[in-house]
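Reading a protein record of the kind used here takes little practice once its layout is understood. The reader may check this reading against the record printed directly beneath this paragraph.
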Amino acid sequence: MSQTADTEFASDRAVELRAALVADLRAHRKIASEVVESAVRRVPRERYMPSDTDLAVAYGYDNSVVTRRNEHGVAISSVSAAYIQARMLEQAELTLGMTVLEVGSGGLNAAYLAEIVGADGRVVSVDIDPEVTDRAATLLERNGYGSQVRVMVADAEHGVPGEGPFDAIIVTVGAWDIAPALLDQLRDGGVIVLPLIMNAVTRTIGFRRQGDHLVSTSVEVAGFVPLCRLRHNATYADLTVMPMGPTQKSRPAQEREAPGPSALRRRVSRATRRRCQRRGIVVVG
């Protein structure tokens, strides 16, 4: 088989796998809207993954693909599983024309965002790792999204300089707190979706900003690479992976019963209330 035929065969197979993935996500209610379905149908996932990634892996329902590891072999950047990406896009309640911030670059999710917000919308994607942002910017430019997505090196814990306010913010790295600086850049009525680590279990939670407080709108169990940050006055060479707290290490996740809604609201507010109040944001619950 010629190289051209090989390419055409791979392209045809990718289209078939993409359609099958959409059907699977619909069946499991991870995709609920036409805008998210259209984005997942249009964006070729395999183009944002390492070149040796098998198409079956790229289009697996719950396959995540590591794209970068640190010197200790710890994954610090990855393409999230399709069901997590689809669910977070739905949680963000995105519409045409929005300005959206993505924290944690990779390229694929930003392409989905660009498809959903359309030509009149705008996407800003930030990451603390310049190698990650360089890769994401290259892939987005190569696939036609370069003019719609701005990729920046930034420590999102301190906000994104020169940008905002945002209609929606999606954080794609695991955290156990909400950075008040991000909330400063979220419009009133806007939604922030992020993976919060509580008792060793990560849940992607959607919060809507209503004046001086946040209201939780959705919850989904998930898993993510941990949030990284720079120590004060450090360079990227001093990048650290933020460790889990003692309560998160104390017991395996499978030994814990998932909390009910009231307990979840209470834990989230305890983790965020003090820091948010310094910025005038009150987390309800």
In short: The CA atoms of residues 98 and 121 lie 5 Å apart. Residues 1-7, 224-269, 281-285 have pLDDT under 50 and may be disordered.
